[in-house]
Beta-lactamase family protein (Chitinophaga solisilvae), 377 residues
Amino acid sequence: MKLLISLLLLSKLGTGTLPDTVAVPQVDKAVKTFMEKYNVPGVSVAVTRNGKLVYARGYGFADTAARQRVTPGSRFRIASVSKCITAVAILKLAEAGKLSADDKVFGAQALLGVRYGQLPYSGWLQEITVRQLLQHTAGAWPNNARDPMFLYPSLSADSLISRTLIEQPVLYQPGKVYAYSNFGYCLLGRIIEKVSGQSYETYVQSLLQEAGIRQMETGSNTLAERKPQEVVYYGQQQENPYIYNIARMDAHGGWIATATDLARFLIAVDGFPSRADLLSSASITQMTTPSAANPNYALGWLVNVYNNWWHAGSLPGTASEIVRAANGFTWVILCNTRTDKGFFNDLDGLMWQAVNNPQTRWPDTDLFQPVPVLTTH
């Protein structure tokens, strides 16, 4: 019976059916100003403080044509925030002794063996480690006009990997140069599959369930394939939000989630004592230690000297950000459009202003138990 009650509470978190609670004016004002400035149809926000969900609110429209409003149960593409999830999954496998961050990726005795591409492999390709993929220091496949993850949309992940290894050789000695790589995280997804014996999505979902997260899944490609509770995405400046193979992006940019589920994820890896973490303290330290090549990028997370961790995500029709701040706050912001000219700087600044404002009064309760959800009309 206790399990049934717990599952019902988690279900209500996603449905957006519970009564509204008190809004936080500083957050409401900042979000509404941002939405008006950048013509954002819909936004979902979740904030935790010392492990408690203190704010969860939807703004605007999930579907403008149907006049369907965003609720905390609305699911959004999270784009590159997916990398944080993949990094945690890799470190969990390392804790289980299934792999090491310093294992080689390609070669006869390596994690992915010689399954992909064309033999003989180059020396540099065989030097690449799991850690270097996590840190974007593999020396190849940068996020530029030739980013493999945005090419050949009809190819499966396996076929794309083989083609990329043939067409795009390693450019720099692994470990020496930082170059943000979506393809590197695609490889990490295949490593998770090889080591766990499960599909990437299945393994990660089982891990997320340990944190009480049951509504996250990898997304689909077209509007017609939109998942239950998923918002509609809106392109700006002639962008088509349904042009890419989102399902193939799984490990680097393919997840959809509610803001509240991402808040659960954050407090499950934040290193704070308020709630148990999915990872050991040693793994969290490893996860947030930057590489020599980039002092602000660790293993799947951006970090700074103030002990703040974060990641943003961006695709046509999608913008996302998760933040773990050193002062005990975490927050999630999800949008169903994006643009440029200051958009992401302003998105990043949204919650910092409210969190650092001594006049902000957060609800003195834990909305996770159970979770009253909010919708702005």
